[in-house]
Please model this.
Amino acid sequence: MDARSLELFFIDGLPDGMLTAEVFNWTGHVLRFPRTKFREALRRPEAQHTGVYVLIGEQDGSPLAYIGEAENIAERMRGHITNKDWWDSAVCISTTGDLLHKAHVKYLESRLVEIARQIGSMPLENGNTPTRSSLSEAAQANMESFLETLGIVLPAIRVDMFLNKARSAPKTSDVVASPAEPSEERFILQTPKHDLYAEAILRDGEWIVQAGARARSNWEGSTDAKTHYANLHRELVTNGILVMQNGFATFQQDYAFSSPSAAGAIINGRSTNGRKAWKHATTGQRYADWEKDQITAEATS
Model:
């Protein structure tokens, strides 16, 4: 995918307040707001447009979301203020010129529910997956292009439920380094005490643990306040990325983590300093030392 420019506008100047998100040369418009700001948000012109929306919150201590569509988002969401008391933030997705019609948004709603269920990181209050509306081949292609850009915007505003971090093995032609780009690097993590072993590659800034890696079957570290990594470990088991085999949680496919420490924590089942735990597959250096050498080489080149 080509580089894109994202513009965020913090309407009330607060990081967790209302914001809009737009991408240059994209017709889409995204409005995110906390429930406490619903009056101000639903008065905005774009909230009167035809579009889809996502409600995000918790019910009985577990995360929950709902995906819907409407010809007037504000009118539909006012009903959700009274009949859905669990959500605490919302995202409204429309277009700057109100270009979507009913068939468009029914298609988008169906696809978003499909994607969210496929990824499985966020339970949905939706019952069945809505039926896709009947669109021409050209219109479907336009909506898929719309969704592709939306898939960049939503994670940027901390809505990760549509972000798939599972990675397919690259084709041979994809991993051949160009003269201007360094080849991907491979690292190994071993914890002999528990017979844990994992390999990961550093590719395009992602720390990708390879399928077949052996991780702890349970989270053994601190569970105070439901640590992020404890929740992630449970999520990966629920989604089938980690499957219990011979006393281990085995990675069924490549999976991208945001850092070596995040990957190390899931493998060891406890907080892990990934910069020390991962070692370069060729040199045996700790990742921290290898990284330092890269900085030195860059400074002297």
About this structure: Residues 172-300 form one domain. The radius of gyration is 22 Å. Residues 170-182 have pLDDT under 50 and may be disordered. The CA atoms of residues 7 and 22 lie 5 Å apart.
